[in-house]
Design brief:
- The complex is a heterotrimer of chains A (157), B (387) and C (364).
- With 157 residues, chain A is mainly beta.
- Helices cover 9% and strands 30% of the residues of chain A.
- Chain A has a five-stranded antiparallel beta sheet, with no helix packed on it.
- The termini of chain A are far apart.
- By secondary structure, chain B is an alpha/beta fold.
- Helix content of chain B is 36%, strand content 18%.
- In chain B, a hairpin with a 2-residue loop joins strand 5 and strand 6.
- Chain B is globular, with a radius of gyration of 19 Å.
- Chain C is of the alpha/beta class and 364 residues long.
- Chain C has a domain at 4-114 and 204-222: Thiolase/Chalcone synthase (Peroxisomal Thiolase, Chain A, domain 1, 3-Layer(aba) Sandwich).
- In chain C, helix 6 (155-169) packs across helix 10 (279-289).
- Chain C is globular.
- Chain C starts with a strand and ends with a strand.
Chain lengths: 157, 387, 364
């Protein structure tokens, strides 16, 4: 049996959460907000420096008791310029395109973080370029990754 | 060791961007009915059900319980899995364990997604860690484009080579009556002229978003041969994860740590020394053209940096030395919760010699993979004939 | 049947709000304790089955967050979205078929982070029922009315079980202290959904629970202290509005299959740990599982059960953990004498749609 005029039932749900950031994110975000400083944790067993910091080294299962400062400079390890609109989960609205988006390996870290680039011209970017975090002014920082506006390239292609 | 287990029946739904003609339970039941009918099985012969889906995509909590009555599952054990894109393959792996352990003789595996019924793109943004990633996301495509850039840099693969994958997929899909995107006349030029989504990824480089479901029946040795003369035996399965954050893996597509580990394990267990020679067909989970080329290298179908050359030489075409995704693959059909189960189902159909117009002649050994979460892999080797 | 044993258990402290830790950190507390208990390192594990629900964790594919703490880098983790006894049953099969030898079964949930009403409402049929804005409490009220009217549960005795659970909680170091109440206080607490009162519902809770399970060979090699899983069964009932409130066929089926697998001709358990979110269900399920209400806090729910405070998903595995500790004689002030065989129960869904039953004993 097939319905001749199948119906669609609209339903809008709004789910609200208040996530506990936990011990590691709380410490990292507090330093970002108050001092514009970035940190990673070093694995006690295999020495890898992990950003974001976390309680366990996934690679070897070791504990990560040592906190150290990383960045705010780093290197592009992968990049794109996004030209398709996408709904920003933080605002519920489409983020204006185009914008640069990249893997950044912060100096002193062994892992990458994703973040936005100030540069949005694809042919002005390449893997290996040096970048630096651009922080929001102190009074606008709230303790989230958005306290970093984006990363600025420090050299010309 | 446990008993041998095999895929004995397969049921795909039809796929479309919007299956407005069916509700979610009706769509799931379409896959189940086709699967059971293909081998004259009844629901009463099923001992347990494993079902995969990402419930936030459709916005229904505990969806397997909601549809239990509607799909006829009430009274049976049901296991609901959610492992991202890999989940369909996780369903097949679970069905193998549940049967080979002796817990059940016959298990029904289901994967489904009705992506048109929820804001999948906004739900998928909640994949980002709320503390670390959610404020700085660019969607699945932006994320994927950055990964592709690492592979382009490492291998020198060209947009033309990626475009050939798009062409292969959509042409193969025309041989598969259940595929979503069939484009018999698609050309490399058309792919290269399609809209840039995020450099280097163009619209036709990406998988579609589909509504659909897939079902398989897995049965124990003894039972399996009664259902079908040529079951698809599980020769090896392996699951490997990467770490928590998307930026953790140093080279992403260029060196896919979980795919290397999982494929190493299944090759060793199934006695495969040279996958390009020893495998008859592969159904891999390629979310985009660049990923398929990278996966050729990571699966050791060729040397590092040779992924582009492999498509240039036609090695992975349906009439090539090692056909990859003769069904059209993920680039042609992508209902996320079902997508990896479709890979397993297609690999099974190949070694059961029931793949119709996209059958690879005399296929005995097939590889299937699932990919999802943060670069997780499920890998399976299915073998026709005797366990 | 193949031999699979629990060789380590661990739990976080379960409390109404663990806002000091993120999900992975909450789970890590239980993992560290379970690994210590088993005398192994995280790197020794060859697989994991995790249990969690995306709606509670507030993210899709929520097991991504626990990848490192469960040690799944390049290893086999899979994730079950039900009460964690479902995950234990699947995990059992992964070792029973010889493909793995040493695994973690993990469960975590924070009921404090999302809006429970909205999360529960999202489990209703989206076409007809969801717009009625109901939640678990509404189903429980409808079911409880029938259960009380037909004598399948008793209003006063159900309230007495809540009081007993809270008394047991005071002997359970893994749950945050709860206010002591008597039967009258339960019956006089604010209305939840008639005829149920607020205290009839298990308290909101954040917590985690972890088991280390192992093959017989591994148990021997590690010289571990095993409790053998001899039966494991799950059963899914009809959707809540398709089912009669007095219909216990689903639980009966899970019980019968688990007992048959264990080779128990009748229920010979010394300890029975029953999972129920509402007091009247505790009476109904206890009757099916052969627990005597007069033993509440003793052989029946010595841990206090879910009314002592365990969250969704985790509750069933906490029942298993208690049984393991009882059989090993390590249950402290709660210890039941001569505990050699035990039954643990878990439940999932609106109106307790899916049930899971596990049998455990000292010798396989």
């Amino acid at each position: 049996m097939t319905a001749e005029n199948p119906l669609r039932l609209e339903y809008v749900a709004n789910f609200e959460y208040a996530y506990a950031a936990g011990r590691y994110a709380s410490r990292f975000m507090t330093a970002l907000r108050d001092e514009a400083k970035l940190h990673g944790t070093r694995c006690d067993e295999c020495d890898v420096v992990l950003v974001p910091p976390r309680p366990v080294c996934g690679l070897c299962g070791g504990a990560t008791s040592d906190w150290l400062e990383v960045g705010p400079t780093g290197t592009i390890t992968g990049y794109t310029v996004v030209e398709i609109p996408f709904i920003d989960p933080m605002t519920g609205r489409e983020r204006p395109v185009p914008y640069g988006f990249a893997f950044i390996r912060l100096d002193g870290a062994d892992t990458n973080i994703y973040h936005f680039l100030e540069e949005n011209r694809h042919d002005h970017l390449e893997i290996g370029m040096s970048v630096e975090a651009v922080f929001k002014p102190p009074d606008e920082r709230t303790g989230t990754m958005a306290d970093i506006v984006n990363f600025r390239t420090l050299q010309e292609k | 060791m446990g008993r041998a287990a095999a895929v004995v029946a397969v049921g795909p739904t039809d796929h479309a961007s919007r299956r407005l003609d069916v509700s979610i339970p009706e769509m799931v039941r379409e896959a189940v009915d086709r699967c059971l009918a293909s081998k004259d099985l009844s629901f009463g012969q099923i001992d347990a059900i494993v079902i995969g889906n990402m419930e936030l995509f459709e916005g229904i909590n505990l969806p397997e319980l909601w549809m239990a009555t509607a799909i006829g599952a009430a009274g049976k054990p049901m296991y609901k899995l959610n492992n991202g894109g890999t989940v369909g393959a996780s369903v097949a792996v679970a069905a193998d364990h549940l049967v080979s352990s002796g817990l059940y003789d016959t298990v029904l595996g289901i994967g489904y997604e009705k992506q048109s019924e929820g804001e999948t793109q906004s739900a998928i943004t909640t994949v980002g860690d709320p503390a670390w990633e959610r404020a700085v996301m660019a969607g699945a495509i932006g994320n994927f484009a950055v990964m592709a850039s690492t592979y382009v840099a490492a291998s020198g693969v060209t947009p033309e080579q990626a475009a050939q994958v798009a062409v292969k997929s959509r042409r193969n899909a025309c041989r598969n009556p259940h595929a979503h995107l069939c484009r018999p006349d698609i050309t490399v030029e058309q792919v290269l002229a399609s809209r840039v989504l995020a450099e280097p990824v163009r619209l036709l480089d990406m998988c579609p978003s589909s509504d659909g479901a897939c079902a398989i029946v897995v049965a124990a040795e003894g039972r399996a041969e009664q259902v079908t003369p040529r079951p698809a035996w599980f020769a090896a399965t392996a699951t490997a994860h990467d770490t928590q954050f998307m930026g953790d893996s140093p080279q992403r597509l260029a060196r896919m740590r979980s795919l290397i580990a999982a494929s190493d394990r299944v090759y060793a267990k199934a006695g495969i020394r040279d996958p390009r020679q020893d495998l008859d067909v592969a159904e891999i989970y390629e979310p985009a053209t660049y990923a398929e080329l990278a996966m050729y290298e990571n699966l050791r179908l060729c040397d590092w940096g040779e992924g582009g050359a492999l498509i240039d030489e036609g090695v992975t075409e349906i009439d090539g030395e090692i056909p990859v995704n003769p069904s059209g693959g993920v680039l042609a059909t992508n209902p996320v919760g079902a997508t990896a189960l479709i890979r397993v189902a297609e690999a099974a159909l190949q070694v059961m010699h029931e793949a119709g117009d996209h059958q690879i002649a005399d296929a005995d050994i097939a590889l299937a993979t699932g990919y999802g979460g943060n670069a997780w892999t499920e890998a399976l080797i299915l073998r026709g004939g005797r366990p | 049947m193949a031999q699979v044993a629990v060789i380590g258990v661990g739990q976080s402290v379960h409390a109404p709000e663990r806002n000091d830790v993120a999900h992975a950190e909450l789970l890590q507390e239980a993992i560290d304790e379970a690994l210590d208990d088993a005398g192994i390192e995280l790197a020794d594990i060859d697989n994991a089955v995790t249990a969690s629900l995306d709606f509670y964790d507030g993210r899709t594919i929520a097991n991504m967050a626990v990848a490192e703490v469960v040690g799944s880098y390049l290893k086999a983790e899979s994730r079950v979205c039900s009460d964690a006894i479902h995950a234990l049953t699947y995990g059992w099969s992964r070792i029973a078929d010889g493909q793995f030898r040493l695994g973690l079964i993990t469960a975590h949930c924070k009921e404090s982070e999302g809006n429970l009403h909205d999360i529960e409402n999202a489990a209703f049929d989206p076409f007809i029922e969801r717009r009625l804005d109901a939640d678990d409490d509404v189903v429980a009220g409808l079911y409880a009315r029938t259960a009380f009217a037909h004598g399948a549960a008793d209003r006063e005795n159900a309230a007495a079980l809540v009081a007993a659970a809270r008394a047991s909680a005071s002997r359970n170091p893994k749950v945050a202290p709860l206010e002591m109440v008597d039967t009258a206080a339960v019956l006089e607490s604010p209305v939840l959904a008639t005829p149920l009162r607020t205290l009839d519902r298990a308290p909101r809770s954040d917590g985690s629970c972890v088991l280390v399970i192992a093959s017989a060979d591994t148990v021997a090699a590690l010289d571990a202290d095993p409790v053998w899983i001899t039966g494991a069964a799950i059963s899914t009932g009809r959707y809540w509005s398709d089912r009669h409130p007095l219909d216990m066929a689903t639980l009966e089926s899970a019980r019968d299959e688990a007992l048959a697998m264990a080779g128990w001709s009748s229920n010979v358990a010394d300890v029975i740990e029953v999972s129920a979110k509402y007091s009247f269900q505790l009476q109904q399920f206890a009757a099916v599982l052969g627990a005597d209400e007069s033993d509440a806090g003793g052989a029946f729910n010595p841990s206090g059960g879910r009314h002592a405070g365990n969250p969704t998903v985790v509750a069933g595995l906490s029942r298993v953990a208690e049984c393991v500790e009882q059989i090993r004689g390590r249950a402290g002030d709660r210890q039941v004498s001569r505990a050699e065989k035990a039954i643990a129960h878990g439940v999932t869904g609106l109106g307790a749609q899916a049930h899971a039953v596990v049998t455990m004993e000292t010798a396989a």
